Fold this protein.
Amino acid sequence: MSSPAETFSGPRDSESVKSRWHSTRAQFFGIGAFYIAVVVFFTLTSDYFFSYSNALNILTNVTVIGIVALGQTLAIVSGGFDLSVSGVVPLGAVTFVIFSNAEMATPAAMLFAMLVGAAVGVFNGLIVTKVGINPLIATLGTLSITAGLAYALSNGVTIPMKNIDAGVLAERTWGRVPYYVVTLIGLSLIMWFAMRFTVIGRRIYAIGGNREASRLAGLRVDEITIAIYATCAGLAAFAGVVVSSQLLAGSATVGADAALTSIASVILGGAALFGGVGGVGGTLLGVLVLGTIANGMALLMVPAFYQQIATGVILLLAVGFGRLRAVISG
Amino acid sequence: MKNQGKQSITRREMLTRLTALGFTVPAATALIAANGRRASAADPIRISFANVFEKGELFVQLGNGIENAAKLMGYEFRRYNNEFDSEKTLANARLMVQDRPDIILEYNGVEGIGQALRRIFDDAGIPFIAINVPIPGGHWFNLVNKEIGTDTANVVVPIANANGWTGNDTTAIIIQASAAGVEVNDCVRYFYVTAAETMEGMTKVKPDEITATTTTIGDTGIQVDGAGALEESYTAVKNALQTLPADRHILLYSVNDDSTLGGWRAITEAGRQDNTIVAGLGGSVAALGELRNNPQWVAEGSVFATHWGQYLIAMATAVLNGVEPPPLTKCPQLILTPDNVDKYYDAEGKVQLLPPLVPENEYLRDTGVLQQFNNVEGLIG
């Protein structure tokens, strides 16, 4: 399997990307095996783990981070990343509930909340491409702005949803699966298809693989980068809508760990921080690994302090194992 | 100089406005006895206040309440934000003593730096009042979480007992905020301990047996960590529910309203609300709405945080007046039920009446400050 980035890279870059691609595949399968081990471990140690209702519980727990991580995958594969999602998630949550409480139709309230997020993303993209500020600094700045805005808009209080029908995404469909889980699956399929089989997907990989070569090859690198950040922030705002639907309330305190957890998931799934490799499948696997470990430890009644420690250790071990496997397989 | 000019105009305008109200500055002056600091329109009492954080309903409203109370009394007021950060707190302390206020109100969220704060304030010779988290050598104003948890259990458990629930078919889920420390989590610890003492079949434990790392209490208690936040509490309770049979009754209680609302949402989502009795803590608008409209939400602890300002300003006045307060001045606190909620809160969730002073707080009456607000039961003129 070759990386789409090869099309736009020179021979040495091509070899380098190819090597990275194999490394990512090795990590993907390594993490897949690790995930199976995690499931087996918790099945053997907890009476409550291996059941349909708990599987559903895990899926509902990971949906918000899953949606954020989809956008983060785009940003990381293109060679950047987006810390502002930790501010955009609460901003999306609060604006959605404010719009909804102002008796705006639910689909319109969702759309406006996402547009607010997308606008933040466009701003991020402009700062990164036109002003030339490093994505770390740019999105750190907008993280602070958007988180502050969420607090300002909500006056720091939790805003209950007046019309609970606006929480339609949390309604259950076939098999008691909430609509937001179905939405995550749908979004993942669309993004997987787009990244793997479309021209824009190849261009995102190309930009992440070698930004300058992509520019010389005639790609509209800046416009694509802005679109990537807009999509990433739009998805983060939509994740805020999902949180609000789950909680039937909007709060500026939600999503605080969205940036770090989403980046961890994407990296755990085999993406490289320097861009050019990664994918939707790996990201979802990363999200599932972290969510399943958190769920399993909660069922085993592991105290919260130790859960944090264990999650960090497992993250390092899993990534380390994947890298080791890649090295051994050459 | 420009700033000073602008500041003095603002101050003059403020004083003019307050004087026009007819009572504030003269009242403030009269409230300080001859042996204390005497204020005048030209030289008002100066108070510096460092808020623990300027985010979240509780902290913002608390800060606003103190500021409004000080201004209403005609006191000069400066406000700082400690940002829940030890270095920032110490930096603010140094800034505050530079201002040479008459008294400092310090809401420090980091217990371990109390000695450092004390040194800064003592070196400057400025009296100080610690809010919530004690500072050695300072006066202390706080809620008593232990009493709130105990009193809440004493409302919740009789209702559960009347339903015929026992420890054989009931689990108490308590949602702690481990990072907030022992004092804050006393409310949930004592809630469980009291519930276990008054409900047949519950596993009895001593308070100190429930720690930050406790997750199960026999077969009748589960403690989860909701970090004092809506989303985290929702997820934590959702996971805990997986371990409880669907027909088991639940008593739900937490350290604050956001946590309780998150836990309650997980319970309703699981369709277990009819098997649950819930109590909140905080008196937020959303929780008061639940208390009024949700038959399962039977109690709501309120510490009237939006009105701590008037008590703190009364306390500051007493200290400047030479009074030695008790080791702990308790904030107003009360367990609201559907029967008494309308007496203390209006339909919009605004406080309309505060509970009467407890005996230890009678010294606040003598300052005359609380009477200015005309909202404390027993002190309404």
In short: Confidence is low (pLDDT under 50) at residues 1-12 of chain A.
